[in-house]
Amino acid sequence: MAALCISFLFLLLFCLVFSLPTGRNSICGYKSCPATNPSMLNVHLVPHTHDDVGWLKTVDQYYYGDRNYIQHAGVQYILDSVIDQLQKDPARRFIYVETAFFYRWWRQQSQDTRRIVTQLVNEGRLEFINGGWCMSDEATTHYSAVIDQMTLGLRFLNDTFGECGRPLVAWHIDPFGHAREHASIFAQMGYDGFFFGRLDYQDKARRMKTKEMEMLWRASESLTPPLADLFTVFQILP
């Protein structure tokens, strides 16, 4: 019964959050991906950024770049430079994760800048990944808090960009450890895949040796497959 209730909550969240149509001239999503060559090894470079919504510094200090002697980070300057560089080359792509920072930056922009950003999103050149207010912890968070913060971020992206603002994959490169229940949440929310970066070093070494750095994660014993199945990729980080 608990699993059915949670599944209903996810379905309701998904229907409420993503209700706007895609823009008429949009080519976002998988349609915007560069063409690959099946006769060659195709290497996908994913330019991205990540700053915690509060960790070694406060949210304000991360955003404005204060107290860089603690950690060198100024999120507003990252977003400024990304938008500038994306305009200079149509082949460039960038993904962004933490909606909390983007929301603050967006509110400070002119209408001209907002139109430019909307065009980049509609063309698939600026893509939102994960989409929650933050990249939540998986070890100590309750599922209701995870749903709340995901709803807050996804609602803003939907209201601002419509279907092109919808993240297609979950992205947890920084949480220390991963929970099966979290993968189940992402699967039920309709994500196509899950990328994460931290796993036990022995497990990572074995997977790299056996070429098992990706898998289909069956994230629930009680839900009928494939409701909680999620394609999962272990990122190779330095």
Automatic annotation (TrEMBL):
Q: Name one GO biological process term.
A: mannose metabolic process
Q: The organism sits in which domain of life?
A: Eukaryota
Which Pfam families does UniProt cross-reference here? Glyco_hydro_38N
Question: Which GO molecular function terms does the record list?
Answer: alpha-mannosidase activity
Domain Glycoside hydrolase family 38 N-terminal residue range list: 42-234
According to the record, the signal peptide region is 1-19
Q: Which InterPro entries match?
A: Glyco_hydro/deAcase_b/a-brl, Glyco_hydro_38_N, Glyco_hydro_38_N_sf, Glycosyl_Hydrlase_38
Q: Which GO terms describe its cellular component?
A: lysosome
Keyword terms, alphabetized: Signal
Q: What is this protein called?
A: Lysosomal alpha-mannosidase
Name the source organism: Cyprinus carpio (Common carp)
